Amino acid sequence: AMGLIVMPYSRVGIATEVRSEEHYLYYALMMLCLAGLLGILVTGDAFNLFVFLEVSSLATYVLIAMGRDRRALVAAYQYLLMGTIGATLYVIGVGLLYLETGTLNLADMATRLVEVGDSRGVLAALAFITVGISLKIALFPLHLWLPNAYAYAPSPVSAFLAATATKVSIYVLMRYFFTIFGATEVFDARATGAILLGLSLAAMFVPAVVAIFQHDMKRLLAYSSVSQIGYITLGISLDSVEGLMASAMHLFNHALTKGGLFLVLGGVVLRCGGAGFDRLAGLGQTMPVAAFAMVVGGLSLIGVPGTAGFISKWYLVSAAMHEGQWWLVGAVLASSLLAVIYVWRFVEVAYFRAPPADHPAPGEAPLSMFIPALAMIAGCVYFGIDATWSSEVAMRVAEVLMYNPGVGQ
Predict the structure, then answer these.
(1) What mean pLDDT is predicted for residues 113-135?
(2) Is residue 408 part of a domain?
(3) Overall domain count for the chain
């Protein structure tokens, strides 16, 4: 679905952000990245999963480097280094699992791991795969590649990656934790849950504080993404159906929200010539609909009732209370207050500052960019009012992961 939205959006969206002679390469790489991500979702083989992960990653590195800012090349190189380390750790883990089980088929692997038990090879594989995929999802403190990658990539690429790349990697992590190794092996017999809980809390707070001090909207949204990933992994760390449901809900809702915000911001960048706060000053006057859409997306990041973000945070709080972790409710609320601050920074710039002297004439982005962006922001409101479908799907996902190990491989 995100591919269907981003591809028509890109026709105008890359006009000023990607060199004209590279447009054909952009579309080819976007399709390659999409193919890799879809392959990750459907494959039943551990090594093929690695191949598809690298196909999508290699395409992503080049897409990020296409940004006109010279820093885009540095950002792509940083992502290349950390992504390669993550992929290497993952494939080492897969190799260890193959030595222990004699198969790369994920369904067979899950069955044979029950027979193998707690061997050193299995525990080492769990560690390698967890750290490797954590690099891919940008789990704090392994997130250093993400802010620059999102900030300097072309806006359609930032939107696509924010909505898909890290989310697919989270799916891989959940798949290994619950359907391959099993929740008992990962959480009950190990300190994995406590470690993941600690990292999730750090992710919820530290990047949110850093986001407050940013002066570029794309970097602000990038650090916000690292913070929001913390909510998803927090639900996973609870090791319960309710927690997994909250994680699946927030995965979907954050993809919708952050993808929409980056798409809206792409239109703003096209009109205003940049995403710095100096260029966004007075946006409420020059691009009132875009500014309002950004505010709505920001409210979803905060978790205001009537937005998709509220629904998933509500389920997360409910899951924490169900597990007796009442103090986590305060942590979620406190981190949401930090989101209020960084969203207010945009509101202050857009509505309480005068436009720069060279601001464009009042007007919105072209319709080919405007309609897809507003559709995603409207989705934030729709799924904040009627979450029946998303909650049912999330519950089904959670039940399959918790109660049917090995299913779906």
Answers:
(1) 84
(2) no
(3) 1
* CA 271/CA 287 separation, integer angstroms: 9
DSSP-based three-state secondary structure for 154:
coil
The phi, psi pair for 388, rounded to 5°, reads -60, -50
3-class state of residue 405 by DSSP: coil
Please check whether residue 301 lies inside any domain of the structure: yes
| CA separation for the pair 272, 356 (Å, rounded) | 10
pLDDT at 408: 40
pLDDT of residue 89: 93
Q: Which residue type does 91 have?
A: V
The Cα–Cα gap between 193 and 135 comes to 18
pTM of the complete model = 0.86
CB of 254 closer than 8 Å to CB of 394: no
Please report whether residue 53 resides in a domain. Answer: yes
Q: Is the residue at 251 inside a domain? A: yes
Mean pLDDT score across all residues of the chain? 85
End-to-end Cα, the chain, rounded Å: 23
Q: What is the DSSP letter of 356?
A: P
Average pLDDT over residues 345-368: 78
Section 395-406 average pLDDT: 75
